[in-house]
Amino acid sequence: MPASPAASVAAASPGAATKHAYQRPADGELRQKLTPLEYEVTQQQATERPFESPYWNNHEAGLYVDVATGEPLFSSRDKFDSGTGWPSFTRPIDPSRLVSRADDTLGMDRTEVRSSAGNSHLGHVFDDGPKPTGLRYCINSAALRFIPLSQMAGAGYGDYIPLVSPATPPQPAPSGAASSPVP
Length: 183
Prior knowledge:
By secondary structure, this protein is an alpha+beta fold.
């Protein structure tokens, strides 16, 4: 029997990056910074409607970060079409950037994933994904901000370019990045 998604989060991506000083803003700042839907999803565990979010069908190369903190979470290279209407990924950029916990709401046995620095609700991870991980990180677009490859360096995410660039082979997450991204 395969390991549960919660047990597999730590093994989802090779390598580990040194964490930046990403911090969750105070609630009042989050209420001002985030749209009502972004706040409801990330802070109150809501789920956006499928097939209506901006990133479920996005095929552009780039980086997906936590909308609340700017913490890098997913590469476009690990994104796939799951047919669910939400962005789906086979693994995070760095497993230490996610926290998982059991979620039995709505009468379902699921594994919730949250960003580690911001404690933002992102979505859920399931064990029905494609190879190489067999995982499907089903993530709300409202929990993410997309940084296109062409803008990553200017936004402070230059060290992550090899992880999203279609011209380079997959690599482990960078460690000791020199710059802090602007959220």
